[in-house]
Each structure stands twice: as C-alpha cells, then as structure tokens.
Design brief:
The protein is of the alpha/beta class. It has 3 domains: 7-76; 85-232, Heat Shock Protein 90, CATH 3.30.565; 252-364, Response regulator (Rossmann fold). The protein is built from 10 helices and 12 strands. Helix 1 packs parallel to helix 6 (260-272), helix 3 packs across helix 4 (124-140) and helix 4 packs antiparallel against helix 5 (199-209). The two termini are 30 Å apart. 36% of the residues are buried. Mean pLDDT is 80; it is low at 187-193, 240-247 and 368-372.
C-alpha cells in the first residue's frame, strides 16, 4: 500500500518508538529488580509480601502493554523481524497459562485445558504474545466463576488453538471490527479492564506473518466468544534428554548502566545471588574495567551517554585476549538494535526488564556463541 508519509517522518517515528521503549523499560527494569530483591530477602508474607506481589504483577502487566504497543506499531509498518524455530504449540499454551494464572483475574476463573502436542514454526516470543493476549482477552470479558476452555489439536496439516469463553459475547455490529487497531467496542461503567485495543490486532498480524489466521466467533451478547488460531504444522522441537541445572557458582560480573536505580537494583540482586559485581555508570569507565579487571560476564546498556554500548563492545573486541561474555542490556528492543549489537561484538541481547531466570541462564553459560 503506497504511503504519503515521507522517509524523514518515518525515521522520526522509528526513533520516537525506540526512545519510548527505552524510557519506559528503564524504570520497569529497576522496579522489577527491586521486587526480586524483596523476594530473595524473604519478603513473601504479610502486608509486605502482599505489596511486593502487587508490584510484581503490575510490572508484568506494564511490560506486556509496552511490548504490545511497540510491536503493534512495528507490525503495522512491516518492520518486525522474526526468529522462527520449531515449537510445540501445546507447550507454548502451558507457558502462557503460567503467565496469566499469576494474575488476579485468572484466580477468579476456571481454565480448562486440553492440549495435544503439535509442531509449529514460530517465533517463541511472538507465540507467547499471541497466546497470552488471547487468554487475557477471554479473562477480561468473562465474569468471575465462569469457564474458559483452551484446546490445541491437529487438523490435517494445520495446528489449531481454540480459546472459548463463557463471557459477555460480541454483538453482530462489532464482530467485523474486533481485530482493528485501537478498536475497543462498547465500554460500560462496570468494565474495569480497559486495555489499549491493540492485543487482538497484534494476534492477527503475528498469525498472518507466520502464515496463519485468526477467526472470532460468537453466539451473540451474553453467549460467550470463541477465537480460533490456525497455523501451518511444522516439526516438533528436539528436546535434550536431560537439562543440567543452571550453575550456581560465583561469577565476576560487570554492570555498565547509567540509570542509577536500574544499576543499583541489578547489582544488589546479583550480589545476593553470590556473584562478585563491578559497576560503571558510563562507557569510558566500563571499558577501563573490562580491560583491567577481565570480568567473566558484562551487562552493558546500549543507551549510554557519550560512548554508547556499541562502542564499548567494539573496543573490548579489538583486544585479542578479551574473553568476557558481553550481553547487551537495553530498553531498545527493535530488530535493528539486536542486529547491530551482534555486529558490534555482543554475545547476547536482552530487553529490559529482564527475567531473573534469563539472567541465571546467561551466567550459567560459558560459551560465547549465539545464533541470530
């Protein structure tokens, strides 16, 4: 479709989206690390534990909103890059269920699952987004106590995911627009969960770029809704016979991060996990520590003032004896940022706020190879 938008305007929009993601994810990273520290310190009961759990849930919710908002814009512009690989759709459903079942709305519903293993060729991050959005949508519009049924089955050469709810249903005049960007349908004073009107649009776009489709059905107002996702079948992933537990041995770790709160909280968490942590608030200082102290792992923010993270990685890699595992720790999550990070010499790339399990996995891995 031809566009009347000039290349200069497109570039400005891309820059704005990148900066928006960076500015939103930095405070989320600090808050997420703080909640992990509270959990690590045993703040799990009483009023303090309840407060920590609330913060943790809301951070996850905000992260999903930020991811969906930015990804919807990229998909609409045709600028999203996919990391497709063999996945088990049933496993993806169970992982997504683990995410949504930790939320308050899920605790008020009965979620029934009947999922058989079927392979699909899908980007794992995007598949989780798709399934979480479908489940969240069902929870949002289904009164407490009623059931939500999730089914995964094989239909010839197609993998089918069905999410069926006993919710408020969809009116005939709304059904044709249910996947439109920012479409909200009719709001009521009783509707406490609004959303941005982008979740189902993102589901549709991601299904289509993976060669699939999504369909919405309803019996009408008060008679529930059914969403049917169809994807081309692919090979099932090959799982290792056994997985070793992540290593808990101490690592010498460097954090190069200009956001004081994010750096302090990550340092505290890593220290509580038993690691020896060095820190730098700018690129020049970070390079000095990299070259002089030779940490085993370095988490380097991309958006550093002055010397950015890319330059830090390039200088480190110019040193032939530099063996530090370099990890780009960033609020910029676009495909171009990821590609540029690896070209600069990073071994891995993670977007803030980072899942503690992902950090543990990185610290346990002594290899420097990364497939991209």
């Amino acid at each position: 479709m031809p566009s009347d938008v000039s290349p200069r305007t497109e570039r400005a929009k891309d820059d704005f989206l990148a900066m928006l993601g960076h500015e939103l994810r930095n405070p989320l990273a600090a808050i997420a690390s703080a909640t992990e520290i509270l959990k690590r310190l045993g703040t799990t009961t009483g009023a303090a534990g309840q407060s920590r759990a609330v913060i943790e849930r809301q951070v996850r919710h905000l992260k999903r909103l930020v991811d969906d908002l930015l990804d919807a814009a990229r998909v609409q512009a045709g600028k999203i890059t996919l990391d497709r690989r063999p996945l088990d759709l049933a496993e993806a459903v169970h992982r997504a269920l683990a995410v949504v079942q930790a939320t308050e709305p899920a605790m008020e519903h009965v979620i029934e699952v009947d999922a058989e293993s079927v392979g699909v060729n899908f980007d794992p991050t995007r598949l989780e987004q798709v399934v979480v959005n479908l489940l969240t949508n069902a929870l949002k519009f289904t009164p407490a106590g009623r059931a939500i049924r999730v089914t995964v089955r094989v239909d010839g050469e197609t993998a089918v995911l069905v999410v069926e709810d006993e919710g408020i249903g969809i009116t005939a005049d709304v059904l044709p627009y249910i996947f439109d960007l920012f479409f909200q349908g009719e709001r009521s004073a009783a509707r406490t969960e609004g959303g941005l009107g982008i979740g189902l649009t993102l589901v549709k776009k991601l299904a289509e770029v993976h060669g699939g489709s999504i369909e919405a059905r309803t019996g009408g107002p008060g008679r529930g809704s059914t969403f049917v996702l169809r994807l081309p079948r692919g090979p099932l992933p090959r799982h290792a016979a056994h997985r070793r537990s992540p290593s808990r041995e101490q690592r010498r770790v460097l954090i190069v991060e200009d956001n004081d709160d994010a750096r302090d909280m990550l340092k505290t968490w890593l220290t509580l996990e038993g690691h020896d942590v060095l820190e730098a608030s700018n690129g020049v200082e970070g390079v000095k520590i990299l070259l002089n102290d030779r940490p085993e792992v370095a988490f380097v923010d991309i958006g550093l003032p002055g010397m950015d993270g890319y330059e830090v990685a390039r200088i480190a890699r110019q040193q032939t004896e530099q063996t530090t595992r370099l990890v780009a720790l960033t609020g910029y999550g676009q495909a171009a940022d990821r590609q540029r990070s690896f070209e600069a010499g990073f071994d891995d790339f993670v977007v803030k706020p980072v899942d503690p399990a992902r950090l543990t996995e990185i610290l346990a891995d002594r290899t420097h190879s990364f497939q991209w």
